[in-house]
Structures are given as C-alpha cells and as structure tokens.
Amino acid sequence: MNANFSGSISFQNILDTILFTISATQPYDLFLMVKVRRVRVWTLPAIGSSNAATVIFDGTTAGSQGDRVIHTDNSMGIEPGYITCSPAGKSLASMFQLSSTAVAFFLYAPSGSVIDLDLSFKADLLQVAQAAQNASVAAPTGVIALRGLDGLPVATTKFIVPQPMEQI
Question: Has residue 135 been placed in a domain?
Fold first, then answer.
C-alpha cells in the first residue's frame, strides 16, 4: 500500500481487481461472483513506533450479515503486526456474492501494509459482461489486468498490484 487506508471493501471492489480490457477506457470484470475465504494483513512501522491494522466482517444485506468480530493487531518496534482471519460460516462474505456495493469487510491498514486475500471466484457462463465501476485511461486493449482493492485506476489507487502484472 502506498498510503493509509480506512474504509469498507465492497464485493464490487473485489470483483474489479481482475479485469479484461475491451477498449482503452472500458474494463470488464472477468468473474461474476466472489466469496472471501481469508484476509491476511502484515504491517511494519518505523523503528520505535507502532502501527495497528484491523479487519471487520461487518457487511449487511437482506437476509445475511457479517459476524462483526474485530480482528486487529499492533506491530511493536521491529515486530510486524499480522492478522489472519476468515468470515464466519453462513455470513455475508463467506457466501458467493455478485458485484454490488454490499460491504465484504472493513479494512484499516497503514501505509506500507501488505494485504493478501484468499478468494473463490465463479465465472459468468451466460456471458453477461459486468463493467468495472471506474473507467481506465489508455489501457492496453484485449489483456487481463489487475486493479487495486479499492477499485480505482492506477493513478489514484492506494493499493499497489504486484509486478510484473498489468495494472490499469
């Protein structure tokens, strides 16, 4: 991460991380549905200080909600903070979800944190394309590209995609 992040990650944000570009400005989600299996966060502060990271599966939608358990850890000096957590069974994030603004989880992570998601995806067998929530700028056409977890284009995202993957 290149900046502090504190906010909700939606299912739309997650599905917008793996995209197919059909033009220089319009990417589409490669998958139709996603479910969260595990979230891991590592954070390391400057020597002599402390950083905290937090994950909460707090999303709600008709008929389902998160467990609202707070998963947090503090780094201490040179010891990194580390969170590994999974949504409760039968909760919102643990079931397959379509692209929507429903919250998968809340995330607080300081700059320099590493976020690792274990996800399961389902493809769209009916070939109904779902456009990404944000357009791209001068993206290469006809490639599979990645976006940061906030769903924003490379110029404004706080999340850095591992290299050498194409980031739009």
Answer: no
Inside any domain, residue 93: yes
Residue 50 covered by a domain: yes
Looking at residue 106, its pLDDT comes to: 94
> How far is 33 from 19, CA to CA, in rounded Å?
13
DSSP string across 22-90: SSSS-EEES-SEEEEEEEEEEE---TT---EEEEE---EETTEE----EEEEE-BTTBPEEEEE-PPTT
pLDDT band at 49 (very low <50, low <70, confident <90, very high): confident
The per-residue pLDDT for 64 is 67
Q: How many domains does the chain have?
A: 1
